[in-house]
Amino acid sequence: MSSTLDEEEDEIKLAIAMSLQQSSPAARHDAFASNEITGAEDEDEDIRRAIALSLQETQPVDGLTDSAQASSLISKDSAPPIDASKHSTQPPSKILQAKDSANTTEPLGSVGLDRKAMEQERLARLSKRKRDASPERPSKRNGRTPPTQTPASTSTITHSSVAVESQYPRGAIKRTFATGYPRTNDITIDELLQASSIHIAVISSFMWDADWLLKKLDPRKVKQIWIMNAKDKDVQLRWVREMEATGVPNLKVHFPPMDGMTISMHSKFMLLFGKEKLRFVVPTANMTQIDWGEVANDWQPGVMENSVFLIDLPRRKDGEAQDRNKSTKFGQELIHFLEQQKVDQKVVEGVSKFDFSQTDHLAGGSWKHESDHPTGLPGLTQAIRELQLDNIKEAELDYAASSLGAINDTLLQRLYLAACGESFTTNTESSNMRNHVRIYFPTNETVERSIGGPNCGGIISLTKQHYYASTFPKECLRDYDSTRRGMLSHNKLLFVRGRKRCGKSFAWVYIGSANMSESAWGGQRVLKNGKMGSLNIKNWECGVVMQVPDHKVAAVELLDGNIPPMSVFEAGGKMLEENQGVCRTNADDSDVSEGSGGSRVHAPTTGDKND
């Protein structure tokens, strides 16, 4: 594996690929010739609008009782591979000071917790993937200025022990806040954390800005566990020692198992424990200022957008931990995931003291070729079966991603099958799915004219090697140009819509950390002996599948063959006023219907040595 990574090292330096590279007119035409690749412009405009991020202002409606709406949690995604053998062992240079000097014995080294330090730690492999949070003034770049808005407070939270009512008992998908843009049902990091009402926060992220986060969550008042990314044991131990040496109270760092082929802890989630509720969060954003739409300069608008799923779970009335076998699928899978990540047992017990009863609608199911807790694409397969979204005659897939791997027809087919609730087996016949899958990724022109420009697009990546491979499905690409004009997207969103064999139409969306790659979803092939090789997933990932309610699907005008249009995911206008159950992109929030919160979360798996 290491030799393969070494061969790709030079290409990783071109991580911005189509987005950031200056290319010849011929190359650009080859990459995104709009007429040849996108097909009908009207359809693309409909799709862009549906996955766009600045629809009209709307308000969520409470009281929806459509039990058909469901969600399922899945773990996966693709972050840039990290070769631990080449991981820098030098401590980052940036120094952060603890908030309470009386409790601080040493300065707090960022130990890879902020963007720049993380990039220094990975410099040998990632080179120019650094993302700059302070670009040139937009007026000097392209004059593209977003609409003004009433500023949202991004100041440090004043903590106090205050109980906060559950806002999202059934779950919601919301867009992240962006400085300088209208507040269209988005959510700020402060509104999400509710720091004044929580006493414990368990946060998992691929990248960190420790200084920024400690201003949001005072460690003197909120006990914190940060689940971080580092494969090398020596690096992990050094970070733990440095954190302990700072004397910052109530703050621990944790590293999940990174054995075998597992090379990246890319999952993103939060467990925010309050007096009366547990808020569980799955964002596409890292714990960095730029990912949550905040900026360091008063003149600078937000440059990066993300999405977030959140659900508020009430504390059990008896105050006791529930037997996992009596919990819902959501609760069982979440606890399994935490145990696989070797999170403190007290955290697991704490989660068990909250009520998952509103997620008990999920159907049971299993994938015979894996364990009871399949991961990656087999995990998606099982989740779709449990949601009773399988038995599909035809489906259309639209994938908005911030990083693309070595995509080929095999991966497209495996993704399509999983989205239909079907397994990839030795008897699976090869099939061309390029006409049924669209992948949204910004062109070089889109990045150039964005507010942040190329300097703020470093985390949005596609290598030149992957793009120019003969097997790469270029015709599946679509330009990801947000309707929240000028912003780049860090979303990972998979929209699936289609028709079942019984003739019933359906639609659902995945939100999480998984980009479009085998590192995220897992590689699996037929071996020379005719048997299926083991699933090889290189990353820890996490995500949620949410169904669009049946009556919402019935409310839209169906396309030929009873395929719902992309507008089925929109939450704007009259339909949202009548129904809060829409699951959409980062465009605005969509409260989920009753019983939303089924889960499937999984760890990465190692590959078959014979594969």
Automatic annotation (TrEMBL):
Residues 21-162, 585-611 are annotated as: Disordered. GO terms for molecular function: 3'-tyrosyl-DNA phosphodiesterase activity; double-stranded DNA binding; single-stranded DNA binding. InterPro entries: PLipase_D/transphosphatidylase, Tdp1, UIM_dom. The active site is at H266 (nucleophile), H490 (proton donor/acceptor). One of its GO terms (biological process) is DNA repair. The record marks S517 as: Interaction with DNA. Substrate binds at K268, K492. It comes from the Eukaryota. GO terms for cellular component: nucleus. Residues 485-520 form the PLD phosphodiesterase domain. Signal peptide: none annotated. PROSITE patterns: PLD (PS50035), UIM (PS50330). Residues 66-75 have a biased composition (Polar residues). Residues 145-158 have a biased composition (Low complexity). Residues 113-124 have a biased composition (Basic and acidic residues). PANTHER family: TYROSYL-DNA PHOSPHODIESTERASE 1, TYROSYL-DNA PHOSPHODIESTERASE DOMAIN-CONTAINING PROTEIN. This is PLD phosphodiesterase domain-containing protein.
